[in-house]
Design brief:
The protein contains one helix and four strands. With 82 residues, the chain is α+β, with helices and mostly antiparallel strands.
Length: 82
């Protein structure tokens, strides 16, 4: 039984200029794989500063689509994304 974290970060809501507003409450996000349930499973967990933590199960196909979508979106950015 093991767990491996692949992404974990504090994310902030966007301000009126479309930038992260670090003055507002952060949301902690993590992507991890675990065999806690007997076989390997992938999860996306969202933990708001206030409110209930949400853990979402990802199929391998969904995880691949999410990764591809993020890669495509970041490849499209042609400017300084602060």
């Amino acid at each position: 039984m093991s767990t491996t974290m692949y992404f974990d970060a504090d994310l902030y809501p966007a301000n009126s200029e479309g930038r992260a507003d670090t003055q507002k409450p952060k949301t902690y996000v993590e992507i991890f794989r675990t065999s806690y349930f007997g076989d390997d499973q992938l999860f996306l967990r969202v933990c708001p500063s206030k409110g209930e933590q949400i853990t979402l199960h990802l199929t391998k196909e969904q995880a691949n689509e999410l990764a591809e979508g993020l890669t495509n979106a970041t490849n499209y950015i042609g400017y300084d994304n602060r």
